[in-house]
Fold:
Amino acid sequence: MSGKENAAAADSVRRMKLTMNEFDKAKSPDTYFGCNVYNEQVMRSTLPKKVYEAVMRTRKIGTPLPRDAADVVAAAMKDWAVSRGCTHFTHWFQPMTGITAEKHDAFLTPLGNGGVILDFSGKELIKGESDASSFPSGGLRATFEARGYTAWDPTSDAFIKDRTLCIPTGFVSYTGEVLDKKTPLLRSMDAVSRATVRLLRLFGNDKVQRVYTNVGPEQEYFLIDKKSFDAREDLILTGRTLFGAMPPKGEEMDDHYFGNLTQRVSDFMRELDEELWKLGIYAKTEHNEVAPAQHELAPVYTSSNIAADHNQLTMELMKKIALKHGLVCLLHEKPFAGISGSGKHNNWSISTDDGQNLLDPGDTPQDNLIFLIVLCAFLKGVKDYAPLIRLSSASAGNDCRLGGNEAPPTVISVFIGDDLQLVLDAIEQDKPLDGIGKERFNLGVDAMPQFRKDTTDRNRTSPMAFTGNKFEFRMLGSADSISCFNFVMNTIFAYEVTQFCEKLENVSAENFDAALHELIRRTIRENKDIIFNGNGYGDAWFDECKRRGLPNYPSTVEALMQYDRPEFVELFEQMNVLNNSEIVSRKEILLDNYCKAVGIEAKTMLDIARKKILPVCIGYTKELCETIALKNQMSPMLNISTAVEDALASEISDLTSGLYDAIDDLREQISFASRETTVTIKATVYRKQVIPAMTRLRTIADALEVLIPQDQWPFPPYSEILYNI
Ligand code: ADP
Ligand code: MG
Structure:
């Protein structure tokens, strides 16, 4: 062996050893799971017993934490964070922008003699003051009073991110109105707990103190190469492609769903999992999704509030970690036209503090009765408040996806599956359960079938599907916070349960069973129109919706307009979740967000079309014309045909003049919209005039893309973006 070869061999052995060492070092997840979280385990070991118990009472039953206990918690939290390398803390909150916000403060307190101590008080833990004027408030906060407060949410663990102790908080205005997504969710969870504990008492359950709503959100996303991303102004500015002809291969081969992961994607997922686990997030299932370059992550479900925090952190980490692998994570609901978009399936269930899932049909009579009444409250709530559920997933991005035969239609309905349908039919008609059992059905007591769970969960076309022991809401957009849907669903559910309690509390003990039976039967009869077990993508369903009178709000604008209907205000006020001005402000903010999102997209399109596409088309036409002229010059001698160039030049010329008109039209529509001052009218102009003008422009540009040589087209085509990882 030459010296060089020797050195190379030694190097290779050294590297192999290194990898082995790395492998040795790789820790099992249970040794570091939650290591960046100040969780109950850490609290138990760092807090005096009394304080620990006080915090647990606050977390479990909502008893306020005394100030002196808060001081002790703050000091212990700080010591723990500092021991893990933190220098700063921040109140971490979720304003109406849809992303999280933080303002970092150092733990330092000057001593007056030039020195400092590291300090963190209960006051700083519990309440923060923040300039609220840069966050959307929808007119709630007069400009002279720009202060807003962040308030500690003791039910969600503090955690470490970038050497900063992050304290989950709600965010309210100086006058106490809600300005964020967390506070209404917490209030709605209280409402569900109050109402459901009250219901359970009627069934003789005196033990349960608290009822929780749980969520497992399945998060879809795209991963693309950073170089393709950087070459597209539309992706950079809006998160989706505003132009792009369909590639020769889409998803027709079904070869991506659950397919093998490429090395880069696998490395990304591994690192993502590890970082999520350190934050105590139960990331569990990772796989490729239907569309090329699309993936999904599903965590193990947890209580709604924590699931919402975790989902925000998951989205943030996905973006950060992708960059480390030379990738960009796209969370937009529809990054590529013609290719399936991304949603977030929100699995919703409700359980008691002793772990009983109230949506589990179970096999004991008692449980079945509770299951039936809970199911009835759910169905009636969805029927009565369908517009609220629809608007809870409304956004400009999700408008590009919903109703497109890849995501649920925009009409709300509930899928319950054939088994459960048989049960409800039998109850409604007071007849035996044909097909499942032969016994006479007697209020679910002895004839409740064992559910074949797998028959219930494969209807992918329904916005809300019963999947064995939970409801899966499939309308949510991938980029959205899950808070809005969950606080809406919880509030509705709490309201219906409260109504049921009021009815049942008035009947005597001996009439209770009969009254319950009648209530269940009547609720099924009056609300069965909301149930649809067929194919939600077919045209037949749209006709059927009309016949049943189920409302359809095809876009965000129509949906959001419903927010402040008097019956909805009454619902939120009665359940103490939002008041009238908070609802009006949310409507304003969300419509304004919509206008901004569409406005930015429209202006980005204009910019790209004018400065990039138009010049390329003119340039290529010129090239063709020059070729024609040259050929004509030579023609007397060589007799060369210019037929191809003639045809191409004329087709491209025609399209280019169409493009020019479309640009002009879009410019005009944008200026109409921007002149409107009322947000409702402005949003309508964006929806009715600007978006159609964008579609016209895109159609022409995409037709040009397939005619112009690829090396001249100003940005990478779909085939390059979707198939190069
Ligand atoms: P699928 O793709 O078939 O819907 P997944 O395993 O991808 O199934 O996702 C199911 C999600 O539902 C997971 O996040 C899981 O934790 C969650 N889930 C399971 N049981 C419940 C429950 N009782 N309440 C809420 N979420 C649940
Ligand atoms: Mg699912």
Residues 436-449, 453-457 have pLDDT under 50 and may be disordered. The CA atoms of residues 181 and 483 lie 6 Å apart. The first strand starts at residue 37 and ends at 38. DSSP finds 25 helices and 18 strands in the chain.
